[in-house]
Specification:
With 352 residues, the protein is of the alpha/beta class. The chain has eleven helices and ten strands. The relative contact order is 0.19. Bound molecules: 5'-O-[(R)-(carboxyoxy)(hydroxy)phosphoryl]adenosine (KG4) and zinc ion. Residues 10, 139-141, 166-167, 169-170, 181-184, 187, 276-278, 280-281, 308-309 line the site of 5'-O-[(R)-(carboxyoxy)(hydroxy)phosphoryl]adenosine (KG4).
């Protein structure tokens, strides 16, 4: 079985071809990603109109490149998957419409994939991870703790009630005069700094529900910075180190609570999986490794290229669905909001 996947929900235009071998094991035949970071950098964040325009200009080309790199023709594809949300609606529509057109002309199935499901199933694309497992998805747009019990069977144990973790890194970077995207910059500065110089809050720590809140922490960084203006280079490093240390504590605490909740609904997890751009942060990874060891579970961190947005994770989620007989018809709509856990659809303040 071979699926072409298209991803256009944020600021990457991506397409990939993923197939399974005789034993059902995945093989990534191609994965082409075009990042728009440079186009958005001047604005310190993703501008939806710029993103949609860039997607429409690039998507056909990316699909053609993915087919070419994979060495296959359109007629060799068994299904077309696109991320149908959640995300910036202009971009989502472009990817989904492209997949619909390809499905229509080839007569092959269309699979509308939830972008979050792409991240949720990624560990199974790289390793033989069995259900159930706990996923921490942390990117610029999402912060979620999800019990993954099977394909299409997800229970959200926690989310952020305000900023996503990556968004908090980006905003802290911006206020300290560091370039976008801020996560890698803050981590670099933090290495040089003193994490104990500033006493910052650990929002939600100890709460019984595994939700996050980052905006108070971000405000606390701003207040500490304002007290010591003008900032010297060492002040910036110390602020970054103190902020990152607070995030590491919060992530470990919230994930510990989610592990507890996980056992009540799904038993013992086979793994703790971390995905999303924030998974690149080594301090956060080390914190999660300590937690995983303490809880007696394995930590799985997919390679970075598969943690961040790409077409292969969409193709793989599409393939996992297609081989279970699940597909969509051409009337399926793009969705700006689309929680993985349908029971959470109306939850106030939820990001997805
Ligand atoms: O998954 P991703 O590439 O894109 C989406 O947001 O969908 O994640 C990007 C986010 C940005 O907010 C970026 O600042 C953050 O991940 N990030 C990091 C690091 N590298 C990227 N945050 C903290 N530490 C890092 N090393
Ligand atoms: Zn993503």
């Amino acid at each position: 079985m071979r699926v072409l996947g298209i991803e256009t929900t944020c600021d990457e235009t991506a397409a990939a071809v993923v197939e399974t071998d005789g034993a059902g094991r995945p093989i990534i035949r191609s994965s082409e990603v075009l990042s728009q970071i440079a186009a958005h950098a001047a604005y310190g964040g993703v501008v939806p109109e710029i993103a949609a325009r860039a997607h429409v200009e690039a998507v056909d080309h990316m699909v053609a490149r993915a087919l070419e790199r994979a060495g296959v023709e359109l007629s060799d594809i068994d299904g077309f998957a696109a991320a149908a949300g959640p995300g910036l609606i202009g971009g989502v529509m472009i990817g989904l419409t492209t997949a619909k057109a390809l499905s229509l002309v080839t007569g092959k199935p269309l699979i509308a994939v939830n972008h979050l499901e792409g991240h949720a199933l990624t560990p199974r694309l790289v390793e033989q991870v069995q259900f159930p497992y706990l996923l921490l998805l942390a990117s610029g747009g999402h912060t979620q703790l999800i019990a993954v019990r099977g394909v299409g069977d997800y229970v959200r144990l926690g989310t952020t009630i305000d900023d996503a973790i990556g968004e908090a890194f980006d905003k802290v970077a911006k206020m300290l005069g560091l370039p976008y995207p801020g996560g890698p910059q803050v981590e670099r500065e933090a290495k040089k700094g003193n994490p104990e110089r500033f006493h910052l809050p650990r929002p939600m720590q100890g709460r019984p529900v595994a939700d996050f809140s980052l905006s108070g922490l971000k405000t606390a960084v701003r207040q500490e910075a304002q007290k010591i203006l003008p900032l010297r280079a060492s002040d910036v490093s110390d602020l970054c180190a103190s902020f990152q240390a607070a995030v590491v504590d919060v992530v470990a605490d919230r994930t510990r609570v989610a592990l507890r909740g996980f056992r009540d609904i799904a038993g013992h997890p086979t793994a703790l999986v971390v995905a999303g751009g924030v998974a690149a942060n080594m301090a956060i990874r080390r914190g999660l490794e300590r937690l995983a060891a303490e809880a007696g579970v394995r930590l799985v961190a997919p390679p970075l290229a598969l943690c961040t947005d790409n077409g292969a994770i969409i193709a793989w989620a599409g393939l996992e669905r297609l081989r279970m007989g699940i597909q969509d018809d051409l009337t399926v709509a793009a969705r700006p909001r689309w929680p993985l856990d349908a029971s959470k659809d109306t939850r106030a303040g939820a990001k997805a």
